[in-house]
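fold-stage: in
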Amino acid sequence: MTKPPLTLYLAAPRGFCAGVDRAIKIVEMAIQKWGAPVYVRHEIVHNKYVVDSLRDQGAVFVEELEDCPDDRPVIFSAHGVPKSVPAAAETRNMIYVDATCPLVSKVHIEAERHSENGLQIIMIGHAGHPETIGTMGQLPEGEVLLVETVADVATVPVRDPNNLAFVTQTTLSVDDTIDIVAALHARFPNIVGPHKEDICYATTNRQEAVKAIAPQCDALLVVGAPNSSNSRRLVEVAARNGCDYAQLVQRASEIDWRALEGIKTLGITAGASAPEILINEVIDAFRTRYDVTVDIVETAQENIEFKVPRVLRQPA
């Protein structure tokens, strides 16, 4: 039986970013150095396949430091942690390795610098997300105020409207954040922003790639986890840029084939914590049902690499 034709627009860049790649390497190298088990506070990155793979190698994932024994190493996830967490680990004389993405650490340093200059911080982010919790936890309670929407800006209760700075979560929608920043500047004309945008290069690049393919697509699938902020933003970006059907799937088994009946063009991308093997799995699933032509649409090239912590490096 002849398969129907399908043009598949494959977004580039997609999938793993430098911070995610570094965090996974840190867990693998820690297991090699200290043996299993190695504890990881929170999912190292938001992807079930990655977490399950590391668990098979000897990683134990917990939500809080108190769930870890004193005599085994613990790794802090790529999203960052409040200052109280490494302080507690030191009190217990634990071995710990911080896998916080360097671009998240940059935001932490910015917030501390602003605070040292007497400024109260407004953070644009998602309540309850581990990155937001980690960034707000760099300073005493009340020194970082959270806003999620333009509407929040109108009511955020600041100490002094003339002594403010703002930072952002690194995985936000670029377009949404522009609107929130504009609202902050309108209400607080003297607010200080970051020297360089806090939304990370990988988030921006993946959103730009989706914008490039979305208008051509009958449907677009984002390979990623439901608790991955950057993956969920890609779905929103696709929907806003001309794609009528945009969905998040963790694996090929989650594809809703009935919803895709009759499509002739499909976009595929992946969040920054989704490995290429899952993207290929989805493409292979379409090849079994369609005569697929793959068109790679590249909007940026990425060559960034972050070093792993010194404690895990092999001697030269």
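fold-stage: in (second)
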Amino acid sequence: MELKIENKEIVNVLQELLQKNYDAEAGYKQVMTKAKSQGLKEWLQLKAKQRSEYATQLDNVIRNFNATPAEDGTVLGSVHRGWIDVKTTLSSDTDESILEECIRGEKASVSEYETQLEKVSDYLPIKDLLNNQMTSIKTALNTVKRMEDII
């Protein structure tokens, strides 16, 4: 069954966010192994799990449009994780570097959600899902900023 043009646009938005969530999940898992603080490791693990749940939600919506969801993240996400490896290897304060990268990543996620939300403003159930996910990401951003002040 062929998707209508407006449905293709929605699926493209969902695919973009799905890949970004794959990237975020992989990033959190990667830096979790580098964190020194047990509390930070646990928080990063929770964030990776949350992003996995977001990816599952987006995957399900994409399938409801009879489309095939992306199976992995973006090339840019892979490059960013490589940069995190280099940065944390060279950094003397690993947890602080990890938090800085988390802040940068979460800011980018919020920006991406804001951009994509504009494209689905006429589709209330999808808009609500994306708004809920973005709100949680904003909460994570505020939390990680507070954690950076403590560490």
